[in-house]
Amino acid sequence: MLDPKTIEIIKSTVPVLEKHGEAITTRFYQLMFGNHPELLNVFNHANQKQGRQQKALASTVYAAAMYIDNLEAILPVVKQIGHKHRSLNIKPEHYPIVGKHLLLAIKDVLGDAATDEIMDAWEKAYQVIADVFIRVEAEMYDQAANQKGGWDGFRNFVVDRKVVESDVITSFYLKPEDQKELATFQPGQYISILLDIEGEEYTHIRQYSLSDAPGKDYYRISVKRETGSDIPDGIVSNYLHDQVKEGDILKVSAPAGDFVLDTTKDTPVVLLSGGVGLTPMMSMLKTIVEIQPERKVTFIHAAQNGNVHALRDEVEELAKLDNVTAYFFYDSPTEEDRKNNRFDVEGYVTREWLKEKVEIEDADFYFCGPVPFMKSINSFLIDLGVSEEKIHYEFFGPMASLV
Ligand code: HEM
To answer: What range(s) does the FAD-binding FR-type domain occupy (predicted)?
Structure first.
């Protein structure tokens, strides 16, 4: 427990941190990667380039500073980050490295304003915050390694099948190379894939949601090929699409993540996805069909058109069941799509449509997709009176705020 004086200093520096937070974390990464280039094997370079990681870390540091005398209050956030850290194999010995460089960066950016007293308080506070992460993550490592079929770190998986699902999305069916048991997971969870690509200086790690129900002898991921001018071309997704073949080996960490379907409930479920955000929703849909066949589920998917719409046949097959209803939204359908009645609604999901078509009362809502899609859905649901505890969502990359 920190002494009252330290707590006071930490809390009084929150506004300063908020002002300089991003400059501090940007400097922190420069310093840390300068001294520990090996950590570039773990961090996502694309997120770094976009500054997304800086923002995620900065906002967590403010939050932690604000709640330094009551860190229990931010435990849900710590757990969410802890899942990501566990999936990346971040260990206790990494924390002092981050701490040292964070302190150096604070000193660098704040200069004389960062007195010895302030630096001393921050050193103590970082230790307290780091201890909470380390404790939460230790439980997660223990659970991942000791459950049936579980493991520690990265395990070799064979690409058993590679299936093209649309012009941009391809599924990979992964089986453990050791042919031993495979841990179960909760629908909505993701795995990390670690790739050592020839010609690349560092390894790359990416998270992909599992897109099939648990309980099979494989894990399935469905990967979108990332291209476009505003994001650094997805080195990993393009490599998976173009280079990885059936029979190849991929390094995979055990399933992680707290965006999961609550199967202890039997309330109606509405699953909404945009683009490749459908992957965790597929896992949730298939799980409901398999283990809660009486539970009502509405699957709403928005895609540009039929060419980029993955896993449609699978959903259409499930939608024949009494408890499943599916709707497809295309914002720019092709002639082919029109001719073959491939979609239900042209355009985007709207508040009015949701109000008319979806039984809002009692339902739990899960959604994933591009940020503008998620922002609209979130505001529609709030508008329609859905309470916060019934709204569940996940971002593709580093978490951000929807408001
Ligand atoms: C991700 C905070 C310690 C490595 C994250 C995220 C946050 C965060 C907010 C984003 C989570 C998300 O995407 O959902 C923190 C805080 C720490 C800490 C507050 C200290 C108390 C560490 C340490 C390491 C580390 C010690 C290893 C050296 C990473 C990596 C990611 C990550 C590699 C994923 C980033 C990416 O791939 O872009 N962390 N972290 N973190 N953290 Fe930490």
So the answer is: 152-262
Q: Are 309 and 328 in contact (CB under 8 A)?
A: yes
Q: Is 396 annotated as a binding residue?
A: yes
Q: What SS3 class is residue 114?
A: coil
Taking the chain (403 residues) in runs of 10, the rounded mean pLDDT of each run is: 92 86 86 94 72 66 83 90 96 95 92 94 92 96 96 97 97 98 97 94 94 97 82 82 97 97 97 96 98 97 98 98 98 97 97 95 96 95 96 71 44
Residues of the chain with CATH 3.40.50.80: 269-394
Kindly give, in sequence order, each residue whose CB lies less than 8 Å from that of residue 119, ignoring residues fewer than 6 positions away. Answer: 103, 106, 107
Q: The domain at 4-146 falls in which architecture?
A: Orthogonal Bundle (1.10)
CATH number assigned to the domain with residue range 269-394, chosen from the 4 options 3.40.50.360, 3.40.50.80, 3.90.550.10, 3.40.30.10: 3.40.50.80
* Ligand 1 atom closest to 46 (CA): 38
Tell me the H-state helices in 147-232: none
15 annotated to a ligand binding site: no
pTM of the model: 0.94
Residue 61 Cα to ligand 1 middle (Å): 11
Active-site residue 95, yes or no? yes
